[in-house]
Amino acid sequence: MKISVIGCGYLGAVHAASMAKLGHDVVGIDVDAAKVEALSQGHAPFYEPGLPELLSETVDNGSLRFSADISQASGATVHFIAVGTPQQADSNAADLRFVDAAFEALLPFIGPGHLVVGKSTVPVGTAQRLAEIIEATGASLAWNPEFLREGFAVQDTISPDRLVYGVRPGDDSASAILDDVYSSILAQETPRIITDFATAELVKVAANAFLATKISFINAMAEVAEVVGADVTQLADAIGHDQRIGRRFLNAGLGFGGGCLPKDIRAFMARASELGAGEALSFLGEVDAINLRRRERMVDLCREVLGGTIEGAKIAVLGLAFKPESDDVRDSPALDVAARLSELGGIVRATDPHAIETSRRVRPGLDYVETVAEAAKDADVVLVLTEWREYRAIDPAELESIVSVRAILDGRNCLDPVQWREAGWTYRALGRP
Ligand code: UDX
């Protein structure tokens, strides 16, 4: 099938390459000429395991190309909209200007028999509004939310847990076209839910709200555990054995960040308020507050371990990305904590295997170093803020002659307290005695 993907950011670039891998003829369109240039040469503009290989393969075999010219979409009959929906600068609501601009730019190139497929995360009601706009062209609209996780984006796109199609009631041709697009995914017996626009839009934000709630639930338990001297990681293991609860997404620590969960729960609350259903989601305000409190708690713990004052202390920060296997620092708890410690007068030296460049763009004033050894040199305390595999594997003996004081704070409950304490270190974590 001939497919266009409008918007080649995180979602769109991965989707375009994955559709080409599935055997389609794909053009990715983006207004950013530099991004188009990089992608055209098979280079991913961000760190995502497996994506560079997939891009080179599909660009080299001619099934994938990129362009900054929207008219290149005219050869396709299925058009995915994968542009960003960031949080508005002055409110919690989603900013839909990129979605609206993409639809407007695409209008001259669509007609009867074409299907426009929204993948961006949008406030409920958006698909209905856009469907009315494109009706005059004779094309149809479907909303097909995406659930990919950074770090597993290619795998999540090619082997998703489920497919969701939001279509106009009775629009069987829209579902049939999507079935053709995803035929090799459906052959893996992937569940597929065909529903209306509003449900499809809600599925996405409800899934993210549930995940955020699960993380904040365990972080609330961490707060209580700290007061009573209990261990939240053992508590998570114990309740996670109950299959109704499940152990995944019960890792207590610095909490959630990234380009999706924080902004999506806020936009969901904002939209529900507009629709008069704000009360139903008021608990998400608490989920957000618990999440943000983790960062403050980390700063407090650091102050405590340093004997009451951060000013002038040498602080090594290991990890800046919002999670491992990503260079994304959007709303990153790790980068936020590093910046706060620096603002409080700490002499912060921070490192990350992949997120130094992205961090430098957001927080240019911090002191970034390439290696753990440079960060830890003469440090009064070492903080692990993103649980990269290489940080989980650090041997305390490697660091003891480098640091000034043997103190480590585990912001992600990813280290073995027994190992560090036996090596003579002060080990502190969130929600553990
Ligand atoms: C999320 C959703 O998982 C995905 O389905 C959606 O499409 C986009 O948003 P992503 O932002 O890539 O994906 O990251 P995710 O793996 O969900 O992690 C989000 C944050 O939660 C990270 O900061 C992570 O460190 C944190 N987290 C996750 C926890 O603090 N504890 C956990 O147990 C799990």
Commentary on this structure:
The protein has 433 residues and is an alpha/beta fold. It folds into 2 domains: 2-194, NAD(P)-binding Rossmann-like Domain (Rossmann fold, 3-Layer(aba) Sandwich); 196-433, NAD(P)-binding Rossmann-like Domain (Rossmann fold). 43% of the residues lie in helices and 14% in strands. The strands form 2 sheets. An 8-stranded mixed sheet has the order 3-2-1-4-5-6-7-8, with helices on both faces. The chain has a 6-stranded parallel sheet with strand order 11-10-9-12-13-14. It is globular. Bound molecules: uridine-5'-diphosphate-xylopyranose. Substrate binds at residues 147-150, 204, 249-253, 257, 323. It is an enzyme of class 1 (oxidoreductase). It holds the Pfam family UDPG_MGDP_dh_N.
List the helices and strands and how they pair.
Blueprint: E1 2-6, H1 10-21, E2 25-29, H2 33-40, H3 51-60, E3 64-67, E4 78-81, H4 97-106, E5 115-118, H5 126-134, E6 140-143, H6 153-158, E7 163-167, H7 172-181, H8 183-186, E8 192-195, H9 197-228, H10 232-240, H11 261-274, H12 282-305, E9 314-318, H13 333-343, E10 347-351, H14 356-362, E11 367-368, H15 372-376, E12 381-384, H16 389-392, H17 396-400, E13 407-410, H18 417-422, E14 426-429
Parallel strand pairs: 1-2, 1-4, 2-3, 4-5, 5-6, 7-8, 9-10, 9-12, 10-11, 12-13, 13-14
Antiparallel strand pairs: 6-7
Helix pairs in contact: 1-3, 9-11, 9-12, 11-12, 12-13
Uridine-5'-diphosphate-xylopyranose binds at residues 147-150, 208, 211, 215, 249-251, 253, 255-258, 260-261, 322-323.
